[in-house]
């Protein structure tokens, strides 16, 4: 078992990483005045996944510390998307997306089964956002302004979340108890996110290395 002090440290550093997770990406985009290498679809899917996860936690009255980093990451995603839309001259489209998310935020809590279904799809939405970014990198064969540091921080955040979830829920992977089912779903989410974040980071570094050797 992990010592309580070490668990607190992992929790605190994970939150600190989340608080600044998109800043390297934002700096890279602003410095270049371009969002080449970044997939807008990936960011929109990521934002949808984060909003659903946050809405679910608020709806069911989870303790604040379990989702405290989500509003910070969402705010950074919104700023990053605004910059990308500005540089690509799609400000009207940005307003449309904002309206869709605003309406969706209220619509998913109209009925309990809607928010539950949305939460069940949340891992798929978040995984899709990473896969869309991967596909974008493979197609362009260029990392462009994609920040390896931001994705590397995502790897740490996923690993930190996975570690704290494992300790807090104390899930026995080999025990098939039904009470562990939801905890298992949460763990699967963080394992999938960890693998995909590592994959995207490695892909960005791979294309950056190729570009340097050219």
From TrEMBL:
Listed InterPro entries: MannP-dilichol_defect-1
Top-level taxon: Eukaryota
Keyword set, alphabetical order: Membrane, Transmembrane, Transmembrane helix
Sequence intervals crossing the membrane: 35-58, 94-111, 180-205
Database matches in PANTHER family: MANNOSE-P-DOLICHOL UTILIZATION DEFECT 1 LEC35 -RELATED, SOLUTE CARRIER FAMILY 66 MEMBER 3
Record protein name field: PQLC3 protein
Organism: Nesospiza acunhae
